[in-house]
Each structure stands twice: as structure tokens, then as C-alpha cells.
Prior knowledge:
The chain has helices at residues 38-49, 68-74, 92-103, 113-125, 143-152, 164-174, 200-203, 225-238, 253-262, 278-284, 299-306, 319-322, 337-349, 351-368, 371-386; strands at residues 2-3, 25-31, 55-61, 79-81, 107-111, 130-135, 158-161, 181-183, 211-216, 242-247, 269-273, 287-290, 311-314, 330-332. The chain has 387 residues and is an alpha/beta fold. The strands form 2 sheets. It has an 8-stranded mixed beta sheet with strand order 1-4-3-2-5-6-7-8, sandwiched between helices. The longest helix has 18 residues, at 351-368.
Amino acid sequence: xxxxxxxxxxxxxxxxxxxxxxxxxxxxxxxxxxxxxxxxxxxxxxxxxxxxxxxxxxxxxxxxxxxxxxxxxxxxxxxxxxxxxxxxxxxxxxxxxxxxxxxxxxxxxxxxxxxxxxxxxxxxxxxxxxxxxxxxxxxxxxxxxxxxxxxxxxxxxxxxxxxxxxxxxxxxxxxxxxxxxxxxxxxxxxxxxxxxxxxxxxxxxxxxxxxxxxxxxxxxxxxxxxxxxxxxxxxxxxxxxxxxxxxxxxxxxxxxxxxxxxxxxxxxxxxxxxxxxxxxxxxxxxxxxxxxxxxxxxxxxxxxxxxxxxxxxxxxxxxxxxxxxxxxxxxxxxxxxxxxxxxxxxxxxxxxxxxxxxxxxxxxxxxxxxxxxxxxxxxxxxxxxxx
Length: 387
């Protein structure tokens, strides 16, 4: 188990204690891992933006040390990493109970399935007054996740969902009543002030006039990249300048590479793996394609909105919280590959349509989905629960 040696310290002008002001309330956050994924980045934004005069935070991670842990500590917030993976995470119940007994938070906020399950059990054992389970995706694949959630959902005082679609899923599949459900979405923060540092077509061996269709996500069946590659075959026939980039890594890589070769698309499709410069890709792409079979509230769609790129998305959880069909993007019925292909082709062949959709999407992202607004919603939610 790795525990931060950092004390809770802030700059003098943001001291957590002031004359006549009560001490900050303690709040614990529990998350499965701290690798930079969507939920983990959301936790980072939330915990580092909370007002230290009101909240004293401590982050508990079930897994080993990971890139986001030192970044959180740099903001003066302690992080404890228990270093467990797989079934070893169950050992953390005892450790987390002991940590919570020592820290004595008024709220325990959990993120992701394993942290939700372990946090509920440890939180109840430590008699934490308010326990919140955070749901970031409408799980379809792992039925045992749903079974354990149903079995322990009553141990949480509130279930916080990232979109209305996830809330519907939690009610329908886990049996959580609406009275214990709250929806607070994601935020987005993309720096568009600096000029692009790379030329995307040149970097990936495409001609300068290429129209890039961009997909981003883990190479996993959930993301529907088989369908995207199959659809691209027809898209490229209609728009010869079209090229497909799928950014990400995962267990489906070899399968997708075989599919690209089988469809004779090797010249026009690239799967370059993980990259840290996704906004660079988005700023130079012609259209962003979300082919997922299920989601929660996809951060990549928010990033695409902020980067002003037109979006074609399957109608999965969270999409209608973000996109207004035919106004700020195009939404396609799940499984409708022809509609998906037609929409991609329409945007590639009609630049003025794509620009109009992208401009409206960026406006919505700037007005409604800033991290400051999201953290304000979380703060009001926490106050309501403890007051």
C-alpha cells in the first residue's frame, strides 16, 4: 500500500481555515484506478477544483500508483494507492475501512464498479454518514457486475449518474429508485489557443487533401470499431479523399487489423495506438465518428464539440444529453449502419453543413459543459446531502 506523505496544504490566499469560519468538511473519494481515462480525469478535475475552504479531500485508489496520483498530490491533496488488482481488490475492504475510520469523512464519493462495491461495504463498516456511488457507463457486458450492484445498491445513499441514459439503465437493470438517483454530466477543457504542432495527414502517410474520419477509444467491442471500419469501406467509395484514423489501444487490435486487410483498406485506414495529442487530431479532422454500442457520457464527444469538429454518433447513453440532432451533430439509430454511412458521406460532401453543426456544438460545450459548472453542481449536490 502506498500512502502520500503530503499534508493538506494550500496557498496562503486559499487557506482552508479562516477566523470565524468552520473547518472544511472532510470528503473521501474512492476510485478503481488512476490511469488517465474518462472517469479518472473527471475525478481529477473535481477534486482539484473543490473549494479548500469548504472541503478537505483525500483520494483512495484501489490499484497501484498511476500517472494521475502525483498530479493530484501536486495540488496538495493526499492520495492513497492500495496497489491491488483483480481479486486482490477485495482485501482493500479492510484497509479502506481502517483509513476511513481514521479520516472520518462526512461523504464518501466512489467512481467505477469496483470502487462502488468496495466503497459501499467499507463505508458502511466505517459508518460514513453519506455514501455515493458514481455510475459512468451503462454496463452491458458483465452480468456479474449488475448482480453485485443489485445486491449492494441499498448500501449507497445516492447513485450519481453521468447522463440520463445511465440513470435509466441503473433504474431498469439494478433497481435503484428515482429518488436516490442524481444526474451530473461531464465537463470539458481543451486549449485551442496554440497552433497545431503536427500535420495529421503527413504524420500518418496520407495525401495533403485527405478528409479525415476520426474515431477515438479503447479497441474493444463496446466501441463498435468493426462497424466503423465496415462503414468506411462505402464512405471511401463515395468520397475517395476520405481516410480513417482510429486512435486507441486494446484487446481487439489484431481483429481490427485483419478486418482492414480483408476489406483491402490498408492504404486508407490507420490504427496508430494511444496518443496524447487527440485535440490535435480533432482540430484537423473532417468528421468525428462515434460508433459505440453503449456508453455513459463519452468524453471524446465533448472534446470533439469543444474542438469544433462535426459529429456523427450512434444514439447511445449520454449522446442526447450532448447533441441536438441536425443542429449540433447527427444522431443515428444504433445498428443503422447505412444511416451512419450516409451521414458521414453527407458531412464529407457538404463542408458548410459540417461547419454549421460544429460551430453550434462548440457553443454548447462552452456554455453548458465547463468544469467550473460541473464542480458547482457537485458542490450543491454534496451540500444538499449533508445539510
